Write a sequence for this structure.
């Protein structure tokens, strides 16, 4: 009785449901505290104190719950534009910014604006698989291309995939699930290639940079900017991860003022934000985050978790690239079998996500945005699983 | 460069943009206070005091900004289910409720779940024209049928429009823009007809009841329930209007537990709420409204505005049906020319929306969710326009 497409989507996501059900069953059987859940990017850390202070201050103001322009409050957008300008080396104004219901809202709004029925959008493996739905929502199709073995973008692979149907390329750096930051040289090469291919195909290929992890980086690295590198660029982001407020659905997007067809693009995006039913980003959260530009949770807490896990997982014999950003490890599955290692870890009451959930079987993802006690409690299970998988050398 | 469809949508909404620009120009020229803006359903009234108290209490809790199930917090849904059960004479549980980003989010989520490409959704004129976009978003088409001259549903007209492609009928009572409450008898007849036609076409026709104005009713009227009348029913609503918080994007939907294909329907809706990019309804607002079941702004304030306007507009010679609910008057345009009266009122610095904005030229809509000073200040202009239009008898 419901849409045939939605029914099929539910059937094909059955492995995720099975995982979820196993997790729920384990928690019921052993108690929440005895299950080590690394499956979701749902930060266990509290938002920074200044977030709550600002929220309470804004919430006390009675007059702020009305509709505002669909793009968001002008003064909020101005504060964000100033912050982006300092970060991106490109002058952004409030007119280039649209407040959104998180990065998910931003991406859908942008994709609806860009996609003609049958268009393709390219992303690099491994990637956040919600992109597939987001493209399909608007009559487009996500085309996945292989990344390099170090999880960097493979510019040649992207170039080969581009046709006249290519509306956009989505990148996500720091990357979920790999934790990779694409270097500035890679972004610059991507930009040059996209310029050349746009000329060749006669169609502007937009670059959509999904950046919710921009502030969660380690070792004094910074995330390269895309605006100055490529004029046809759009940034989508949210405060979900860096302020630990994913339930609140607040983010923004910005369109490069130099982009082709700029006026239609920004007006189309504002229209789509309305007609998709978002209407506008939540009012009180707009007011709150406006005052918190540059603020984030203490990244050093994540860094310590990363360093601990990197040391222990390596000791146990797991193979991985140490993440440069995000709160994910993307670890090689023993014998390349992601479903097997996921099952084995479940027997130790450890929940992780198989690589196929990011179109890259042969790996598994550990989301370490959890309490230290969860990490520490899981070590025995990770170690025993490594031994059983033949990873661990007996007595060094 | 952007989607051809979106470009066309922007072109075709040019009359609304023109109105908006005229309004902005008038405000710039004469000052905000000297323009009488009745164009938007954006309540000028503060939320009730208990809303702010509850919000502050919930905002002080640091731990509530994480992801929760895509359907919303279980305990929040439980409170809403209990409230709906008391209102609808149908037992609703938390499993039948999904928290949404307002009614706009709810409607998109439901329509995506129901619509196969090429399907039709029927609505009665006059109606909120965002429905057209909401259907089109998901590959469907809104089919408008004429209502009766008293703005009641014309069940025969709806029946005639139904084919095998009909996925759903949307009703909106109390109605924007007419202020009409559809009587229980009408709902019951609609239900009987939909049952018969579902049997005839061999396809379940769902009834989507969009009810954001349910609490804004006058003269001791109540809004008839749909759940007991028709099993294949879904209610979508928001707290935007009755709590005066449209900027916050919080609402819910509920699926009749007796509906055909219930399990796929509710699971499909939860999936669509996620993949459309809503992910979940804003967390803090979920927590807040959970405590405010049955609470609303003081409806008597709206009733007084309605009564004042009804008296004055009638004196001036305008023809209209006194609204039973909502905060809208839908008034006959002199000589049936909605664009002309809108222009004439603009010359008096009065902003209203032409009937064609609701697919019914020949009327104009006054949104009276404004301060008394706006209503009072506009009276001279309404009177002068009535005279010029030949409505007003000189000296009674």
């Amino acid at each position: 009785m419901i849409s045939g497409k939605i029914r099929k989507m539910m059937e094909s996501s059955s492995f995720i449901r099975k995982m979820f059900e196993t997790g729920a069953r384990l928690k019921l059987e052993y108690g929440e505290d005895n299950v080590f859940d690394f499956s979701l990017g749902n930060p266990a850390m509290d938002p920074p104190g200044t977030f709550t202070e600002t929220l309470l201050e804004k919430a006390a103001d009675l007059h702020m719950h009305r509709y505002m322009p669909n793009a968001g409050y002008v003064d909020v957008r101005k504060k964000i534009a100033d912050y982006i300008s300092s970060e991106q080396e490109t002058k952004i104004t409030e007119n280039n910014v649209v407040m959104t219901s998180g990065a998910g809202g931003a991406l859908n709004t942008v994709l609806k604006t860009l996609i003609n029925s049958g268009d393709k959008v390219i992303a690099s493996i491994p990637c956040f698989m919600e992109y597939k739905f987001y493209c399909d929502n608007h009559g487009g199709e996500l085309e996945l291309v292989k990344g390099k073995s170090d999880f960097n973008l493979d510019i040649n692979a992207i170039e080969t995939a581009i046709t006249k149907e290519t509306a956009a390329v989505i990148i996500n750096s720091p990357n979920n699930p790999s934790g990779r930051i694409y270097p500035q040289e890679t972004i610059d090469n991507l930009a040059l290639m996209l310029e050349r291919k746009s000329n060749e195909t006669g169609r502007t290929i937009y670059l959509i940079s999904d950046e919710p992890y921009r502030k969660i980086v380690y070792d004094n690295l910074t995330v390269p900017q895309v605006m100055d590198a490529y004029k046809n660029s759009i940034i989508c982001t949210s405060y979900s991860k860096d302020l630990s407020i994913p339930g609140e659905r607040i983010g923004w997007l910005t369109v490069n003022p130099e982009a082709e067809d700029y006026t239609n693009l920004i007006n189309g995006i504002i229209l789509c934000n309305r007609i998709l039913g978002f209407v506008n980003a939540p009012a009180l959260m707009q007011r709150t985050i406006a005052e918190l530009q540059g603020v984030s949770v203490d990244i050093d807490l994540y860094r310590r978790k990363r360093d601990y896990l990197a040391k222990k997982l390596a000791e146990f014999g797991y193979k991985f690239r140490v993440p440069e950003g995000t709160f994910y490890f993307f670890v090689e599955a023993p014998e390349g079998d992601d479903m097997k290692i996921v099952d084995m870890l479940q027997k130790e009451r450890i929940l992780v996500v198989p690589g196929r959930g990011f179109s890259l079987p042969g790996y598994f993802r550990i989301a370490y945005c959890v309490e230290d006690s969860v990490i520490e409690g899981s070590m025995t299970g990770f170690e025993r699983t490594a031994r059983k998988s033949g990873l661990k050398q007996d007595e060094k």
